[in-house]
């Protein structure tokens, strides 16, 4: 399980950014200042996010680019430290003991890098060694993953010689070779061809079937409707809506009583949030 409570994170604003904001001028009369507005020294990327991801279910963070999704996931993965709030990974306090949290976690992004001078097999084996996976467990998991992902044909090739889709498949195997209880995907299908994207989607479905906790971020509506059991809509670091997928869709009714699509409801929520700001 993943539990996030009142998570906040801000980043300092450079002098150049402050000059650009000053050049843009002050907000209109009566308008609320934007995060990082002229005169501010920091930008609030996440503002009081709280949610729970349960075992055997897939939780989607849905939001436009720049919404704060990646910042949230990097804090969960212990790559960033929050300014405030709490994070629990499979019962481990990720702030107090990030090393123990990482042992229970697999984290994959759309920009995951491999060691290009190592082969596909060596990249995966290196990750297994870091997590203390024994030889027998490694061989069993390696054989199953490489067969499922179609990696065997290029297992001995250096990662620098692989295509983007091939690299992402190797990154998938590396992410879950230690059989983590919790798996986090950050825009993991972005920029991939259909076959590589399908491999990730299949992995998410397999992880759910095995009772793992799965959290993924996306701005692609079809991925949410295909995969998500639960979701949260994120915009400018704030959660605008949250609940089970069917529950959120059931609330998405227009003034005529017609059911909105997820895309329509998403746009409505974001537009409403922007109207409140201005």
TrEMBL record:
Organism taxonomic ancestry: Bacteria, Pseudomonadati, Myxococcota, Polyangia, Nannocystales
Keyword Transport recorded: yes
Family statement drawn from the similarity comment of this UniProt entry: Belongs to the ABC transporter superfamily.
Domain of life, source organism: Bacteria
Organism expressing this protein natively: Nannocystis bainbridge
Ranges where the record places region Disordered: 15-37
GO molecular function list: ATP binding
Alphabetical list of InterPro entries matching this protein: AAA+_ATPase, ABC_transporter-like_ATP-bd, ABC_transporter_ATP-binding, P-loop_NTPase
Entry keywords, A to Z: ATP-binding, Nodulation, Nucleotide-binding, Transport
Name this protein carries in UniProt: ATP-binding cassette domain-containing protein
ABC transporter domain sequence ranges: 2-261
Record Gene3D superfamilies: P-loop containing nucleotide triphosphate hydrolases
């Amino acid at each position: 399980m993943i539990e996030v409570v009142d998570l906040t994170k801000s980043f300092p604003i450079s002098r150049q950014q402050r000059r650009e904001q000053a050049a843009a001028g002050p907000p209109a009369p009566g308008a609320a200042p934007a995060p990082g507005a002229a005169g501010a020294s920091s930008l609030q990327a996440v503002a009081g996010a709280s949610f729970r991801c349960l075992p055997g279910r897939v939780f989607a963070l849905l939001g436009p680019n720049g919404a704060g999704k990646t910042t949230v996931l990097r804090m969960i993965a212990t790559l960033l430290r929050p300014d405030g709030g709490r994070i629990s990974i499979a019962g481990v306090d990720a702030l107090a003991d990030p090393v123990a949290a990482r042992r229970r976690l697999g984290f994959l992004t759309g920009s995951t890098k491999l060691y290009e001078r190592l082969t596909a097999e060596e990249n995966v084996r290196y990750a297994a060694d870091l997590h203390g996976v024994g030889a027998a467990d490694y061989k069993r998991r390696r054989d199953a993953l490489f067969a499922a992902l179609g990696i065997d044909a290029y297992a001995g090739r250096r990662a620098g010689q692989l295509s983007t889709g091939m690299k992402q498949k190797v990154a998938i195997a590396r992410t879950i070779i230690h059989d983590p209880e919790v798996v986090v995907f950050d825009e993991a299908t972005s920029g991939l061809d259909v076959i590589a994207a399908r491999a990730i989607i299949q992995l998410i479905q397999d992880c759910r079937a095995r009772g793992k906790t799965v959290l993924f971020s996306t701005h692609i509506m079809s991925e949410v409707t295909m995969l998500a059991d639960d979701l949260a809509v994120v915009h400018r670091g704030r959660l605008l809506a949250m609940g089970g997928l069917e529950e959120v869709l059931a609330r998405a009714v227009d003034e005529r009583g017609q059911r909105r699509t997820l895309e329509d409801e998403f746009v409505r929520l974001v537009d409403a949030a922007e109207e409140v700001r201005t």
